[in-house]
Amino acid sequence: MLEETLKIFDENRHQIGEATRDDVHKNGYWHETFQCWLISIENDQASIYFQIRSKTKKDFPNLLDITAAGHILSNETVEDGIREVKEELGIEVNFDEVISLGVVKNKIVLDDFIDNEFSHIFLLKSDQPFTEFKLQKSEVSGIVKSNFNDFYNFALDLKESIQIEGFEINDHDEKILINKTVSKEQFVSHENEYLLRVVELLKEQL
After folding, report:
1. Rounded Cα distance, 67 and 119, in Å
2. 115-135 pLDDT per residue, tens
3. Where are the alpha helices (DSSP H) in the chain?
4. Region 65-83: what's the mean pLDDT?
5. Can you identify the CATH homologous superfamily of domain 5-204?
6. Are the C-beta atoms of residues 142 and 121 closer than 8 Å to each other?
7. How far apart are CA 121 and CA 186, in angstroms?
8. Its pTM surpasses 0.90
9. How far apart are CA 60 and CA 72, in angstroms?
10. What is the DSSP string of 129-174?
11. pLDDT in tens, 57-72
């Protein structure tokens, strides 16, 4: 199986070549990702959805993250990234159904992992709750949602925790319902600057 390659960029988003995914994260090359946030509005209340990353994931297993996201490969366009919503969540959606919110720099630095992303941010908004999930278990083990205003204040550090509800699929393919309080330790460690920018962009669309 051929190793995936990504386009790599300088910090000003000028392409400088291509590299394998491992080299991208080893050397901290800037690269592009597709990120789609799901928000539903019911009775004038907005809910934002998060995925639970599979426990088998190499990076950030079991943590809460963007509803659907993935790398844009070297032979793909940004529009091709819409496949992530279908692959990870099982939701059929066309690119013209999502709202583009622009590109946001997203940086995560760990001891052996440097993730420098130009994240293409999209919103999929519905006037009904999202319920028909068919999860890609190797990537996503569950889906939960939270009140958007609570998450907005959480991102601004005005709240220390938020309430989430949804489900997770266990090792026996059983759907386990979730209703609990979580703090930022249960989320992938995105930089505050990134998170603040994203919640502001999302709020503008509500």
Report:
1. 14
2. 999 999 999 999 999 999 999
3. 21-27, 83-84, 148-155, 192-204
4. 96
5. Nucleoside Triphosphate Pyrophosphohydrolase (3.90.79.10)
6. no
7. 22
8. yes
9. 19
10. --------TTTEEEEEEEEHHHHHHHHTTS-S-EEEEEEEE-TTS-
11. 988 999 999 999 999 9
